[in-house]
Amino acid sequence: MSPMINSEWIDRFNHTVVADRVPISGMIELTRHCNLRCVHCYLGQGESRFESHRELTTEQVCDVIDQIAQAGCLYLTLTGGEPMMRPDFAEIYRYAKGQGLLVTVMCDGVLVTPKIIELFQELPPLSVEVSVYGATAATYEAVTQVPGSFEHCLRGIRRLVEAGGFEVRLKTVLLSLNAHEVGAMRELAEGFGLRMKLDAAVFPCLHTGDEKPLDLR
């Protein structure tokens, strides 16, 4: 297909999608549970993040996936919290791939185990996006509040890159706690052969309205 024909096809596709209101991309927050306790998290800290919240069962999540696939969704992002905290993450991921969806997984990298790598090698995601909050353990863990999490994050990134077969993206939330390491974070990403995306958006806590995270802008 020539570039011109390809461009015309994409234009027609986009026009149809807009005209028919087809949801070609979507995101499912699988859980509010997380292995980290990031100071800027919009889900809040402690029990506040679980107030008035009941997680969907495996069957319910798969039913949602059925519905969005039938509605015409092509691109699905699985996120959290930390999606790999769910014991059924692999089952949900397999189901989404089985529905023909192009799946992106957003995670913190800490829980990327050899079993997760085996899963991704068997059924490659479109991409895996890993949040990195600093270029040093001191800065990273000042954000995550979990000792040792920096090295576990780097180990997870390394496993993803070495696995190959899918895109790995690194990103960070720009905070007053880590702004001084932006350059170093970019160098860290380059060391893995990747780029670092910056996001400056910081929000109040979703359910409590606590504005404390805004102090970190």
What does this entry show, briefly?
The protein is of the alpha/beta class. The protein is built from seven helices and six strands.
How would you sum up this structure, described in words?
The protein has 217 residues and is α/β, with parallel strands linked by helices. Helix content is 38%, strand content 15%. The protein is built from seven helices and six strands. Strands 1-2-3-4-5-6 form a six-stranded parallel sheet. Helix 4 links the parallel strand 3 and strand 4. Helix 2 runs parallel beside helix 3. The radius of gyration is 19 Å and the shape is globular. It starts with a helix and ends in an 18-residue tail after the last strand. The mean pLDDT is 92.
Write the layout of secondary structure elements.
Layout: H1 3-20, E1 25-29, H2 58-70, E2 75-79, H3 89-98, E3 102-107, H4 114-122, E4 127-131, H5 137-144, H6 149-163, E5 167-173, H7 182-191, E6 196-199
Parallel strand pairs: 1-2, 2-3, 3-4, 4-5, 5-6
Helix pairs in contact: 2-3
Defining traits:
alpha/beta; 6-stranded parallel beta sheet; 7 helices; 6 strands
- Give the helix level as a range of percent: 25-40%
Multimerization status: single chain
The DSSP helix count reads 7
CA(first)-CA(last) distance: 47 Å
Give me the Rg, rounded: 19 Å
How many individual β-strands? 6
Strand content: 5-15%
In sequence order, what are the helices and strands, one letter per element? HEHEHEHEHHEHE
Q: Largest sheet, described in full?
A: 6 strands, parallel
Instruction: List unreliable stretches of 5+ residues.
Output: none
Structural class: alpha/beta
Label the overall shape: globular
